[in-house]
Design goal:
The protein is mainly α and 415 residues long. The protein is 54% helix and 9% strand. It contains 15 helices and five strands. The strands form two sheets. A three-stranded mixed β-sheet has the order 1-3-2. A two-stranded antiparallel ribbon has the order 4-5. A hairpin with a 3-residue loop joins strand 4 and strand 5. It starts with a helix and ends in a 22-residue tail after the last helix. The relative contact order is 0.13.
Length: 415
């Protein structure tokens, strides 16, 4: 990056800072702030590594984020970022050098390689374990952002919410617009659910399915922890996540095929999207950046319902497209959760998976009408048991995912 920048005529100077002592208390960052050079800085690109592979995640920005996101959107060709992750980074107690730099109010973008954290702070955290594609991705992003900021400071302001679609499309909008859209969708689905009858029962069934699937998955993870020594999923966490999803499916079927079997999909459909939007409102109270994940799928479903008056199949078509959008947007979110919580607790992915599974089961309900309920439940239970048996038979550790060994220490500053 430095070599390429040196060959270019820059309108604004660029500093490259390599520091140490982050784990000892952000020592290098504090030392830089004490240097007169730091007074010449107005923007920051911070590069981190929690792992050794996977796409580079932009997980933190300065607040308000309008200028930072304008820079990111204008320069990065393969975006991998969401306003929900930046809110989570703000809420959790983890520190990076950026924590120290916040007092200066610099425009900030913080990115990291996060895949396979098992090598983090271990003898395996070396160049041999580093995926060259991730290194290239970080270099490309660093060069693009630096080139943009060295040319100009953006004039954008305010707070935006955003996410990417498959690292191809970067979607953003002002936070206030997201709030308005969320409330309009909430009111629309509340009116539709009420107009179609049995709203309380339909909402209760949907909530019961989500809770049942999540709790059953938590119970399965807990039992597996008692039966298996150590971090039993460390070598192949993807197998354990599949077992969790199979268990979540079983818990949801147990509700939808018993309590909810007499409810029509026309009643359950708006009830689900209403519950979905209520979850979005609740999440927005703590992490408003998550609002953008609750807008596009229900908007398509609502449009389909409104067009039903002129074209009857439009509601069903809108529901299918809404599910597709849900999986495109929440699929990447779920993958990020799997990576972030690969050390545990694993059950944290179950509520997200439960929300993603319910609308599929609602739309598939006519397919279950001719099937014996006991056979359906037995088949789902066998699938979950088989998945957990596969987890039990899989080695807990491997050369690439070794057993964790940690030493915790306290350091007193400034002594």
């Amino acid at each position: 990056v430095a070599r390429k920048l040196k060959a270019r005529p820059l309108k604004r100077p660029v500093m490259l800072l390599f520091n140490e002592g982050e784990e000892l208390g952000l020592v290098g960052a504090r030392a830089f702030l004490a240097d007169p050079l730091s007074r010449q800085v107005d923007s920051l690109i911070n590069l981190e590594a929690r792992g050794v592979n996977g796409p580079v995640t932009m997980f933190e920005t300065s607040q308000p984020n309008g200028a930072a996101i304008a820079t990111y959107a204008a320069s990065v060709h393969r975006p991998y970022a969401s306003s929900l992750s930046t809110d989570v980074a703000r809420l959790i107690p983890n520190d990076t050098d950026v924590t120290t730099y916040k007092e200066r109010g610099w425009l900030t973008l913080n990115s990291a390689i996060v895949g396979n954290e098992t090598r983090y702070h271990s003898p395996g955290d070396n160049l041999a374990g580093l995926d060259p594609r991730s290194l290239q991705d970080m270099g490309d992003e660093a060069l693009a952002l630096t080139s943009e900021l060295s040319a100009r400071l953006p004039h954008a302001s305010g707070t935006n919410i955003f996410f990417d679609l498959s690292q191809r499309v970067f979607v953003e909008m002002p936070l206030w617009a997201g709030v308005v859209c969320l409330l309009v969708l909430l009111a629309g689905f509340a009116a539709i659910a009420w107009g179609r009858g049995a709203p309380v029962r339909s909402i209760t069934v949907v909530l019961g399915a989500i809770v049942s699937g999540s709790v059953l998955a938590w119970l399965a993870v807990t039992i597996a922890g008692f039966l298996s020594a150590g971090v039993y999923w460390r070598a192949h966490p993807e197998i354990t996540f599949l077992a969790i999803y199979a268990t979540t499916l079983l818990g949801e079927l147990a509700i939808l095929r018993t309590v909810g079997r007499k409810l029509d999909p026309r009643q359950l459909r708006p009830a689900f999207w209403l519950v979905f939007l209520i979850v979005g409102v609740a999440l927005a109270l703590a992490a408003p950046g998550g609002i953008i994940y609750f807008l596009f799928p229900p908007a398509v479903v609502l449009i389909g319902i409104l067009l039903r008056r002129w074209y009857a199949p439009s509601e069903w078509i809108g529901a299918l497209i809404g599910i597709l959008l849900l999986y495109l947007t929440w699929g990447e979110l779920l993958a990020s959760l799997e990576e972030l919580f690969s050390p545990g607790p694993l059950w944290i992915v179950a509520p997200v998976a439960a929300i993603m599974i319910v609308p599929v089961l609602i739309e598939a309900q006519p397919l279950f009408e001719g099937a014996d309920r006991r056979i359906t439940m037995l088949g789902s239970a066998c699938l979950a048991v088989l998945a957990w048996a596969l987890v039990a038979a899989t080695p807990a550790y491997s050369k690439d995912h070794q057993q964790r060994f940690t030493i915790e220490h306290l350091a007193q500053f400034p002594s």
